[in-house]
UniProtKB/TrEMBL annotation:
The gene is adeQ_2. The keyword Cell membrane applies. The keyword Transmembrane helix applies. It comes from Terrisporobacter glycolicus ATCC 14880 = DSM 1288. Signal peptide: none annotated. It is a multi-pass membrane protein. Belongs to the nucleobase:cation symporter-2 (NCS2) (TC 2.A.40) family. Azg-like subfamily. Its main location: membrane. InterPro entries: Azg-like (IPR045018), Azg-like_bact_archaea (IPR026033), NCS2 (IPR006043). Pfam families: Xan_ur_permease. Keywords: Cell membrane, Membrane, Transmembrane, Transmembrane helix, Transport. This is Adenine permease AdeQ. PANTHER family: XANTHINE/URACIL PERMEASE C887.17-RELATED, XANTHINE_URACIL PERMEASE C887.17-RELATED. The chain crosses the membrane at residues 33-55, 62-89, 109-133, 145-169, 175-198, 205-224, 244-264, 332-351, 357-374, 386-413, 425-442. It is found in: Cell membrane.
Length: 443
């Protein structure tokens, strides 16, 4: 009996190895499972944070919890089988803030049209990938501006997070000011402090743990009501699913946002995938990453699926690096991560009980992660310094990622023209600059 059971286990592992080729990459089932669990713990906070952000756009929060989980699970499984790499996908931080605060609240676009913008940006990304134009754009965008945009988005997220926590408030004289230290603000600050401490101590899932602790405190002190049921059927996605307005998004004034969504998704994913794949030894002798095209197809396919379900751009999550550091090397780890997210569907009443001020510190923490990329910008070169600084500064100050990007492109081109180095600006970047001017004129 025991021999038969062992034979079944070996047969199962052989099948998994044929599908995911983990032995070929120096891994095993146990390592892949541990890697998948690690990735889940580090990014599970998205289940709380994404619905909180998109709900500010007027979308149904209960439905968004289910949609966030489904989009994450589907995207991660797509990557597992199409890309066979240990990456997890979810609605991107920064892109969800851009969706709500820049596009819907900032420009008055309906959330249905904003979903249409996400879908169109995904389709363009897909077409560019198929035709090979993606490579030209990737080479045209200066590395420094791509890095600066990540840092600027980090500041923007932190600004939104502090506002949602109640730490900063609007002020007629100074635009922003320090808010009152109410009990909920103090609970939120405790959550932020815990996140910082957990990060310094390198505690896996620190963001998730702090959200749980502050939610428990909120329940214990009476600021949040404990749900009547812990396990239930997940909320219907009907209020937001397939509600995207693609025709309404086909406006000249939305060219800028469409490009911004595509740009951020494409370059963040490209840079992250290349760096992690090199770490895993997936770089070929020619210097190219094996299977990179399939990985990008998985990324953009997930964006299209996510927009149909009713969420902002689904993209490769940086927290996947935690699973890779734990030894994950194949898509089997992603299957584990996706499975754990699907299990959380049973606990949506508890997820819905998390107050926005408990989830908001995660935005600040993610902002810290994104801002650290600034060290890669060469500030000794004044042309780079000016354009990078303007990009970073204007994202939070204009409350718009798109506007910050536009000013960054324009200033980069201008600095090279006045420095008599216009020949270093590619034709593609000149076109992007012209589109940026048009976008600002129509804003």
């Amino acid at each position: 009996m025991e021999a038969q059971r062992q034979q079944e286990v070996n047969s199962s592992e052989t099948f998994l190895d044929k599908v995911f080729k983990y032995s070929e990459r120096g891994s095993n089932v146990k390592t892949e499972v541990i890697g998948g669990i690690t990735t889940f713990l580090t990014m599970a906070y998205i289940v709380f944070v994404n619905p909180a952000i998109l709900a500010d756009a007027g979308m149904d929060k209960a439905a968004l919890i289910t949609v966030t989980i489904l989009a994450t699970a589907i995207g991660t499984l797509t990557f597992a089988f199409l890309g066979n790499a240990p990456f997890a996908l979810a609605p991107g931080m920064g892109l969800n803030a851009f969706f709500t605060y820049s596009l819907v609240l900032g420009e008055g676009v309906s959330w249905q049209q904003a979903l249409g913008v996400v879908f169109i940006s995904g389709m363009i990304f897909f077409i560019l990938a198929v035709t090979g134009v993606r490579n030209y754009i990737a080479q045209a965008i200066p590395k420094e501006l791509s890095i600066a945009s990540a840092a600027g988005i980090g500041l923007f997220l932190s600004f939104v997070g502090l506002k949602s926590m109640g730490v900063i408030v609007a002020d007629q004289s100074t635009l922003v000011a320090l808010g009152e230290f109410t009990p909920t603000v103090l609970i939120a600050l405790l959550g932020l402090a815990l996140m910082f401490i957990f990060e310094v101590k390198k505690v896996k899932g620190g963001i998730l743990i702090s959200i749980v602790i502050t939610t428990v405190i909120s329940i214990a002190t009476g600021y949040v009501e404990l749900p009547s049921a812990i396990i239930s059927v997940p909320p219907s996605i009907e209020p937001v699913a397939f509600k995207l307005d693609i025709l309404g998004a086909l406006k000249f004034s939305l060219i800028g946002p469409i490009f911004s969504f595509m740009f951020i998704d494409m370059f963040d994913s490209l840079a992250f995938l290349i760096s992690c794949c090199k770490q895993m030894g997936l770089e070929g002798k020619d210097g190219n990453i094996n299977g990179l095209s399939r990985m990008l197809y998985a990324d953009v396919t997930s964006t299209l699926i996510g927009s149909l379900l009713g969420t902002s751009t689904v993209t490769t999550f940086g927290e996947s690096a935690a699973g890779i550091a734990a030894g994950a090397r194949t898509g089997l780890a992603s299957v584990v991560t996706a499975g754990l997210f699907l299990i959380t569907l049973l606990f949506t009443p508890l997820l819905g009980a998390v107050p926005s001020y408990a989830a908001a510190p995660a935005l600040v923490m993610v902002g810290v992660f994104m801002f650290t990329s600034i060290k890669q910008v060469n500030f000794d070169d004044r042309k780079i310094a000016v354009s990078a600084f303007i990009t970073i500064l204007l994202m939070p100050l204009t409350y718009s990622i798109s506007i910050g990007l536009c000013f960054g492109f324009i200033s980069y081109i201008l600095m090279h023209v006045v420095s008599k180095e216009a020949h270093k600006v590619s034709l593609t970047l000149w076109i992007i600059g012209i589109l940026s001017v048009i976008n600002l004129a129509l804003s």
